[in-house]
Amino acid sequence: xxxxxxxxxxxxxxxxxxxxxxxxxxxxxxxxxxxxxxxxxxxxxxxxxxxxxxxxxxxxxxxxxxxxxxxxxxxxxxxxxxxxxxxxxxxxxxxxxxxxxxxxxxxxxxxxxxxxxxxxxxxxxxxxxxxxxxxxxxxxxxxxxxxxxxxxxxxxxxxxxxxxxxxxxxxxxxxxxxxxxxxxxxxxxxxxxxxxxxxxxxxxxxxxxxxxxxxxxxxxxxxxxxxxxxxxxxxxxxxxxxxxxxxxxxxxxxxxxxxxxxxxxxxxxxxxxxxxxxxxxxxxxxxxxxxxxxxxxxxxxxxxxxxxxxxxxxxxxxxxxxxxxxxxxxxxxxxxxxxxxxxxxxxxxxxxxxxxxxxxxxxxxxxxxxxxxxxxxxxxxxxxxxxxxxxxxxxxxxxxxxxxxxxxxxxxxxxxxxxxxxxxxxxxxxxxxxxxxxxxxxxxxxxxxxxxxxxxxxxxxxxxxxxxxxxxxxxxxxxxxxxxxxxxxxxxxxxxxxxxxxxxxxxxxxxxxxxxxxxxxxxxxxxxxxxxxxxxxxxxxxxxxxxxxxxxxxxxxxxxxxxxxxxxxxxxxxxxxxxxxxxxxxxxxxxxxxxxxxxxxxxxxxxxxxxxxxxxxxxxxxxxxxxxxxxxxxxxxxxxxxxxxxxxxxxxxxxxxxxxxxxxxxxxxxxxxxxxx
Amino acid sequence: xxxxxxxxxxxxxxxxxxxxxxxxxxxxxxxxxxxxxxxxxxxxxxxxxxxxxxxxxxxxxxxxxxxxxxxxxxxxxxxxxxxxxxxxxxxxxxxxxxxxxxxxxxxxxxxxxxxxxxxxxxxxxxxxxxxxxxxxxxxxxxxxxxxxxxxxxxxxxxxxxxxxxxxxxxxxxxxxxxxxxxxxxxxxxxxxxxxxxxxxxxxxxxxxxxxxxxxxxxxxxxxxxxxxxxxxxxxxxxxxxxxxxxxxxxxxxxxxxxxxxxxxxxxxxxxxxxxxxxxxxxxxxxxxxxxxxxxxxxxxxxxxxxxxxxxxxxxxxxxxxxxxxxxxxxxxx
Amino acid sequence: xxxxxxxxxxxxxxxxxxxxxxxxxxxxxxxxxxxxxxxxxxxxxxxxxxxxxxxxxxxxxxxxxxxxxxxxxxxxxxxxxxxxxxxxxxxxxxxxxxxxxxxxxxxxxxxxxxxxxxxxxxxxxxxxxxxxxxxxxxxxxxxxxxxxxxxxxxxxxxxxxxxxxxxxxxxxxxxxxxxxxxxxxxxxxxxxxxxxxxxxxxxxxxxxxxxxxxxxxxxxxxxxxxxxxxxxxxxxxxxxxxxxxxxxxxxxxxxxxxxxxxxxxxxxxxxxxxxxxxxxxxxxxxxxxxxxxxxxxxxxxxxxx
Lengths: 677, 333, 305
Hints:
Chain B is built from six helices and 18 strands. Chain B has 333 residues and is of the alpha+beta class. Chain B is elongated, with a radius of gyration of 31 Å.
């Protein structure tokens, strides 16, 4: 509106929008830079002070312009460090703060409202839990209230809220229908991603790193199986292959990375041939900010949508085209009986026999001795496994630090370590013996959320090795399984219990102490899973499944009909809301009771009430009714009169009497009906 | 360019006349209401588009859900806006004539169209809500009326410059309730003719008597204004007329009687030879007011048109109306 | 019916036989602190009714026969110069009684009529600037003769409005008249004894005000009134004074029937007497008795919200 100069002091709507803005900025504390957050809070303080009448003049334009130039240049300075997305979010919040300081007329207010909605939407980039969804919903309502108040300023707040909530409730079913029915488009272009500080696997592992992950109970992914679940001991979720060893750490081979990029460039995707039984499951991965995905054995994407979004690498990994910035669901088929022998062997061999030039002399010596004793690959492997099983190795979450020649120190000195120590030592030993071997990191196990759903947490992180054995291709070996069989059979928790380590440093401490807490935890995990699966994971594929379930087969005719039906549904909803006559004023309960009885009595006696008062009508029809019915009708009418005319507060006992009398009346009349019949 | 614009304006006015005929009481309906997303509504739509792009590109269902919710809200608001506006009934009080240069005030009463007094159970949800904005068609200045107030009427001032009889322009009534996403508006013609009298110009009294009746044009009539004489008290007369001073002196009761000068046949005449006819008319208006205030009967001669002598409020109105119409097309009527 | 009133009704019924309903309405009017207009032919027992009422409640009674030459001062009283005390002294007129029977009210000049009606409304009389309060309770029963309209000054609508109720006694039934004749031939009617003290009548009138009138009943009254205003079939719509009168009378009726709250039946019971004379226009045919108010009652549902 042009004629819209807002009063400054005491304007409730500008206060509400300022407070909403404050809450929004605080909720975005992680992507925002501290000074931007402070700027936002300053602007809100200015607004509150103006509202309370402490100041009477908003900061003038010159001051705010100066501030704008200053903040913009600061932001520009930091922008390279922040990346595009965060810069934009910071910029948006910064601009809103400055606008808030200047807020003078209706136009500013409307701009703020639009920006507020957009910032609210951006909030979902960073968090998508059920809780945050509800939180932002509440913020949205507050924002809308401010907007509503701008157009009905004299309406009491309570009525504003009622009107607005009515609108929102009316809008929600339509929104839901749109959400379910509107086509789910694939991303149109690559979006800038936020740098994430999420915990998780990394592309470089120094033995001992994974132990740190075991302190975290964050969810990594949920897997929903269509058919039977694999055994606990077979649940090896591959995430990364680490093929470069520098004597201390394992990391993703640069050569492998390079080749993968080249192949992606040339669109030469690796497509292993698969056969035999498969596990079919959907993985809902938590955002990791990384592109690797989790799958078992030889895995291929399970449906077209997943196939379009996933790159199959020739080390049998699944790589997403987009980093996982939000929860993401993909469908996978895993073939446990198909050997991993389809990739080019010379290439694999070349990078998997790589060794550091020196270091770990004892190990080198030991392996050459072993190799002499067991010239055959299989025998050597068995001997190594035996060595881990019988030479007094211990599984621990708190391995000692091994800075120099770590493999030597581990194998011959401490003999205690975490899964990655074993994997590292074994892979190194195999390479020394001339057998191509690599470390694989990922997760092992997972707990059952429901019968068909596995939850995998950070503390399930695991490392094992794969060795290339001629025709069999890459074969999995897990030295941890012989050192700490419980870890593989029952999970980390059991393994820790057996090792007798203190509970204080372990993630299960506290949570599982109380049955109730555990129950609650499970419940929340379940809700979160459902939320992820049905709301966040509702993708094009699920949509198609839904349509298929609804329509049978997806012929164009049926789809057209479906969309017409949806349009009709929305039109029907609108008609239901807005056509007059649908919503009759709710009659009080006693009036309803009486009218029901009256209808019955009038049909029975053939005497309509004709605008007579209740008592007079009762007297008129009483002689025409059976005696008991007349008596009950009289009781009912008396009680009605008492409620309607005598007492102003609701009279529950009379209402009860009415209800009872009505029931008896119905029975009496029915009885007389049947006896007449 | 300018002629094109006026042509267009005339065309649209004719269209409006056809679509929303003039009436003193308007109940808004499908025919008379225009509704279109406001500028803000369009930018809201744009923002929804941005959210959709962002949500799609990040494959973020919550963002999409938010976007769809906002779109659904847009849809629901369309109906809410319309229905809120459509249950208005606007009635005007007949507009009062004014002197040129003063503001005429059109007073518009706002009622709910479909709410019968017996049926509303006390709560006001059925009544239209929010702010209404009023302005004259094609004028800038806006007047607000908040329907959540007890006072549901608005006084719309209309600036007059020249004397004459004008049909009032259409009144534009705008509502953007509930969220400002839509603008509902209508242009109403309340079928009012505004009479603007010439602005009075102070001057000498120029009452000319009709020559043949000269000499017998004054008589006295009992009245209130001027003390005339004392006469014996008749029981039953109002006590405030008793001349208490005389009674106090011990004389008989007498009561005062009053009289008022009653002149017949005075005429005001428009000086046609003057250059500035408007000023002459202003002078005449001043004299009409003066004479009426003093209750002196007079007549008015405006060229060929003549108003017979008389007095009283109605006579004053007639004379002023004649002055307002002088020289306009309607003076012939 | 309330126990106190049973003897009153019994006693009155002995004098006006077969007219219980009218007696109850008259009592209601008295309880509601309003004034009663009886429209009837001569000799139907108007005077008897008023007289008996006065007796039953122990009120002092006076009767003013209205004629065209009756002056307001004849009725209200005059200031008379007292030579002994050298001062004006007020001599109250017949209106200074607790129960006044204004007989044939339509025969008096409008001036006199309006003087009475003013006294009824204000409950006081101002003469020569001095205000004289009327006795409490103050109850006027006006009578008028519906036929023989020649030379009368019919009460205008605005003045009719001042009477809370209008009733007409009508001819008694065969049996009632027979009983009356037999009774009069055997013995003189016994004098009515005071059944209710005047003072307790005043407290009863206060109690009537405290009778609960629920929202539903008020809405019903409002709907009746609103319909009379909206429908063009009613030449004289009911005024706010009428709706007030209707509520007051309904309360009194409820009180008379010993109910602490009003039900729509109460409204209906008094509606004809309260509303008919207000609804009718002067030109109406007199014989279409109570048709307007009955039609109104039939077209409004007391139940619907």
